Amino acid sequence: MNSQYIGRFAPSPTGELHLGSLVAAVASYADAKHHSGSWLLRIDDIDQPRKADGSSESIITTLNAFGFKWDGPIRWQSQREGSYRKAVASLRERSLAYPCRCSRRQIEKMAQPGVEGMIYPGTCRQWDGEGASQVSIRMLTTSTQTSVPDRILGRISHNLKEDIGDFVIFRADGVTAYQLAVVVDDYLDNITHVVRGADLTLSTPRQVYLQRHLDYPTPQYAHIPLVYDHKGEKISKSDGANPIDAAQPLLTLNVAWRFLKQRPLTEPIASVDDFWSAAAKTWRIEALQ
Predict the structure, then answer these.
(1) Rounded to whole angstroms, how far apart are CA atoms 251 and 245?
(2) Is the pLDDT of residue 1 over 70?
(3) Over the chain, what is the mean pLDDT?
(4) 90 and 163 part of one domain
């Protein structure tokens, strides 16, 4: 495995792959192969209530049909609960996270809107959690800029306390929150490069903030444009977006390639292996800047 570049694709099993998720996979895979790097597949199945039956198997089958070849075994978030809980415990032991009993409805009544949802006003910062059987855990934020370079967007920056507020890292229903899970995953997998959709841009400062407080390295990030439907809405597995046709992989791969503003592949392309051989040499992430 090339330790200089380790990328990954991490779909959630909430439905079948659609064009938007394929575009993200193409970008991350092409970038890894262009740099002679490794590419891992992780199934982000931590949120079991949202998991669609058969979705994981369908995603894996579709990726195979499109010629994606991941390095090593498939990673599963559902097998890492112990690691997530250790990270939460570490943050709590150092008074960097605290229990919260506020409901979503209570927060909506007293909070101000931020860049992504309501800004949590810190109501439970001084509460010790005594007597509560079901609480969430929030990460304590500060009024400083958390900033990270992005290979496409330039720089992403938030004052987390003022823009987001103390954010949930462990949910009241006993599920590890996405922001913490993905940070622990990328650390465990030694991920050096993250290429993903722009819908996760606003999450990045929170993830970098967690990395710094857990003493984890920060990968290089690149957020690619989203694919929208004819109504101008982001297509999503959970919204029942049409799945991609695995029977015509070359046709769909070329659609994704053009969407990513890449130069046409000039070599003869008769198979998905031909496509990826040419794509690895031709790929330029700068075309998306």
Answers:
(1) 9
(2) no
(3) 93
(4) yes
